[in-house]
Amino acid sequence: MQRVHQELKKLASISATPNPSVTRVVYSKEDLKARTYFISLCSELCLKVRTDAIGNTFARWEGKNPLLPAIGTGSHIDAIPESGMYDGTVGVFGGLAAIRYVMESGYVPERSIELLLFTSEEPTRFGIGCLGSRMLSGQLSLKNARKLKDSKGRDLIELLQWFNFDGQLKDIPLKKGYYDAFVELHIEQGPILEKENVDIGIVTKIAAPSALRVSLKGQGGHAGCVLMDDRKDAGCAAAEIALAVERIAKESSSIDTVATTGILDIKPRAVNSIPKEAYLEIDLRDTNVAVRDKAIRDLKNEIEIICNRRNIESSVELLNCDNPAICQKELVDAVQAATENLGYSHKKMISRAYHDTLFMAQLCPTTMIFIPCRKGVSHHPDEYSSPEQIEKGIETLALTLKSLSSK
Ligand code: GLV
Ligand code: MN
Ligand code: MN
User: Fold this and answer.
1) Which CATH architecture has domain 3-207+324-405?
2) Closest ligand to 88 CA?
3) pTM for this structure?
């Protein structure tokens, strides 16, 4: 159990920015180095490792009855720019620690237990989150995957040519029945568990995320010489849209509606030049699909009104618009039983962040095990969970895997 902390530290050192910040973008040299490290640890445990065509990695501990649907666990190791060392990684390296712990107890599972490292849970590179689990669950078609490009215009397929992943893209989706259940261990990324001094969160539902990409075209010009009434300032339109994003979320009938303009770029970015183009990426979520979808409609209307008034050309692309995941009661009960067995306090909760489990829920029953993180901070170098909190999460996962794989 102790060695997982060293492993997480070593993983954090594989970063494009100096620690304590961690930056590990999918298909970067850091991502590849981290994957190699993960696979070397899996080999120590004699797990059977395979990858699919986009690099989802499966490390299998074969059960006594390998033909039975397996029990899955896992998460991601990609990290958004200048983030922390626990998001996702606790589910991958903690998942490995849970398997090691169960193996050391002498237990042999009836069903196979499979640890997954999902490719690109973060949207950093391709603008779309959960790329690996989205494709595994058949929620992203090959046709749409082929259209994905990074900000430098390199497409997914072109990038994949540089890597030695196995198999073909068409073979990525898993069949229903491949897994009997999937359970992901993750830091909460919110303040509730710490505030209420609870050891383990058991997830009953994951909010429905969506993302929009907005491109605006106005007219550039000299900042001194074009009078205000003659302008088509794409930057000002973008600023108005960002405020509308905030207003629509605040005025929603639901407290669960949250919306963020996470990217706002203008061109040409010169102090004495009127912005001729602007580009926004907007993240909009709710636990209720109907409420989330109404907010998307309101936002699209608002963008049209703003752009008409300002004489700006706009194009709006809905990058993703996903369903929420409802976790299976039997699995939630299994995690609860594990916490009770271990004497750890628990709380049932909603995940407002999305996770690969959102997509695994399309394939099999799922739930998640949350552990507290300091002040709820995540996606930031200050992200922190204590060794004790991590170990409680691993023990809970280990016991859950044991009970699920025994029948
Ligand atoms: C996951 O990283 C999210 O943005 O919810
Ligand atoms: Mn994240
Ligand atoms: Mn995560």
Assistant:
1) 3-Layer(aba) Sandwich (3.40)
2) 3
3) 0.91
